[in-house]
Specification:
The structure holds two protein chains of two kinds. By secondary structure, chain A is of the alpha/beta class. Chain A is built from ten helices and 14 strands. Classes of the chains: A alpha/beta, B alpha/beta.
Chain lengths: 300, 277
């Protein structure tokens, strides 16, 4: 069974994407990546970043808290080492970009005007950096401005990754839409603090971002809310561990879903989810995903 | 290379109701049955796991990502180094430190575990050298498998340390290898009194340009790191780990020059002069 989804003319073979951060740069598991709807790379910054001090990860009940802090080799190394390998991947490639100034965002956008790349996801929601990231994502005006500046410079599919931290994602979603985004990703990790047995912060960066099944109900709520607020497609993300989770996100209004934490447990999780979703659709006699996307809208 | 690392469906299945139809065949992710489990000390236990399908042979220094399928809320795999391997049977030696390892100890008798691996870069194996294998506490376990490989082509001296004689694990297994084994305990009840690194100067004086393989707590690796200028010291690193396959960048250890290395992908066995402990 085929489950294609089209967003602004870009066709995804199925609605399951690898979320940014937990699938490396998409080239680590080429055989898995090829069969996904697409991959979103780890966030890319202009300059190389070494990331936050360890420990960078902690497990909590039903979830994971991380504070990697956007470790990446920077734009130059990405162009030289990663892009040639992305070309052979044979799937939709979306690059997640993180800037600390608007200039940096524009520099990244210009550098990524390449045929290998199908889309750009603007990271306005990373909770683990001091500047940019979630600080910008909490202000609808900034979201709109960043999006519109980038939109002027690129023809690629433009996605804004939203945060759910102390801001209504419906508002920032509307701002992204006004800025010209083609889709919004709902949502990034939630602020979290983990203490060790002695009562001091466990993570090297003190705080981190919570992901995994623990945030799924909240993520679903936000997908529903944003899908009702904007006309552009919504990409659902947050604790999807199985085909039935993905199905729920689609029903709540997501056109695509991203798999994050599940890829930490199992690098083939995306493939399992695609298969489970296909089986589920066959059982329910669903022919195309448009029959279910957003089907709860208007329901009590 | 890493694209071969897949895993079975078991890690996902708790959340799914279509699981029975979903066995993705891979060559490295599998359910393994515990065929023998026993406590070695009051908090360290040993298990032999059997994989019904043939599987890649782990190399010394590699580890498996272990998950107990019945404990859904414990999401992540726990990295456990290979202590021994024999005809498709994997031996893991685990110290109970948190919820994940506690779940393993509770389910060891009847359960099947969900394993991913072997993961990590194999330890570099030297040839025709004097080798010192230095282990402390539960860190002794991965050295057993390593020593079995090293002794084929090298002159190996083993030094092991623990707090008390009852905390010293796998001593019989090392003695069977027919190598010189020295022991330290912190209370002096067995072997020399002190910590395992106290034996290093003496062993160093007896050997020529040795290579040290070390696995143990940070307090043990630190004095060895001081030696890293004169002799090669290969240490087993430990860090809180996310994916174990190099895609989440969570298990960073600071490098001497610039940035972090990933324990799961660049390690776990690295030359100690490359890292800041």
């Amino acid at each position: 069974m085929k489950l294609p989804v089209v967003i602004r003319g870009v066709e995804f073979a199925n609605p399951v994407l690898a979320a940014s951060g937990t699938f490396g740069f998409g080239i680590e598991f080429p055989k898995v990546a090829r069969r996904l709807g697409g991959v979103v790379t780890k966030a890319l910054t202009v300059l190389p970043r070494e990331g936050n001090p360890p420990p960078r990860i902690a497990e909590v009940f039903g979830g994971v808290v991380n504070s990697v802090g956007l470790e990446n080799p920077g734009l130059e190394a990405f162009k030289q080492k990663v892009i040639p390998r992305l070309k052979k991947l044979g799937t939709r490639v979306i690059v997640n970009i993180a800037g600390f100034t608007i200039d940096e965002f524009l520099q990244l956008t210009d550098a990524l005007n390449l045929p290998e790349i199908d889309g750009i996801e603007i990271n306005l929601s990373c909770p683990n950096v001091k500047a940019g990231g979630v600080n910008w994502g909490q202000k609808p005006k900034t979201v709109e401005r960043v999006t519109s500046e980038i939109k002027k410079r690129t023809e690629k599919l433009l996605i804004v990754k939203l945060t759910g931290n102390f801001v209504d994602p419906a508002e920032t979603g509307r701002a992204a839409e006004a800025g010209g985004a083609d889709a919004v990703t709902v949502l990034n990790t939630l602020f979290a603090l983990v203490l060790d047995e002695t009562g001091s912060p466990l993570l090297g960066a003190r705080t981190g971002g919570l992901s995994g099944p623990a945030i799924k109900p909240f993520a679903l709520f936000c997908v529903d809310r944003v899908a009702n607020a904007v006309k552009i497609p919504v990409i659902g993300c947050g604790g999807i561990m199985s085909g039935s989770d993905a199905f729920e996100f689609l029903c709540a209004g997501a056109s695509l879903v991203q798999i994050g934490t599940a890829h930490m447990v199992n690098p083939r999780a995306g493939l399992v989810i695609i298969r489970e979703l296909a089986i589920l659709c066959r059982k329910r006699k669903i022919r195309t995903l448009t029959e279910i996307i957003g089907k709860i809208r208007g329901q009590k | 290379m890493l694209s071969r690392h897949g895993v079975g469906w078991a890690s996902i299945s708790p959340y799914s109701y279509t699981r029975k139809t979903l066995v993705i065949k891979t060559d490295s992710g599998f359910l393994a049955k515990v065929i023998e489990a026993k406590w070695l000390t009051n908090n360290i236990f040993s298990v032999w796991l059997e994989n019904p399908k043939s599987q890649r042979k782990p190399k010394p220094g590699q580890f498996f990502g272990v998950k107990v399928p019945t404990h859904h809320h414990l999401l992540l795999r726990r990295p456990v180094s290979v202590a021994d391997f024999y005809q498709n049977r994997i031996r893991l030696v685990i110290r109970v430190v948190g919820q994940g390892t506690a779940a393993m100890s509770q389910t060891a008798k009847e359960a099947k575990w969900d394993l991913l691996g072997p993961l990590g870069k194999p330890a570099p194996l030297v040839r025709q050298k004097d080798v010192i294998v230095c282990g402390g506490g539960v860190g002794i376990a991965p050295l057993l498998y390593l020593t079995k490989w090293l002794k084929r082509n090298n002159r190996v001296t083993v030094i092991l340390g623990a707090k008390t004689p009852s905390d010293l694990i796998l001593l019989d297994n090392f003695r069977k290898l027919d190598l010189p084994v020295s022991i330290t305990t912190e209370n002096g009840a067995l072997g020399k009194k002190g910590v395992v690194t106290d034996l290093i100067p003496e062993v160093l004086s007896r050997t020529k340009k040795p290579v040290i393989y070390a696995c143990g707590p940070k307090q043990m690796l630190l004095p060895l790191k001081q030696l890293a200028g004169q002799v090669t010291v290969l240490g087993f690193l430990e860090q809180r780990m996310g994916c174990g396959t190099g895609i989440c960048y969570c298990c960073g250890i600071k490098k001497t020059i610039g940035g972090y290395l990933r324990v799961c992908r660049d390690g776990p066995v690295v030359n100690l002069n490359q890292v800041l402990l």
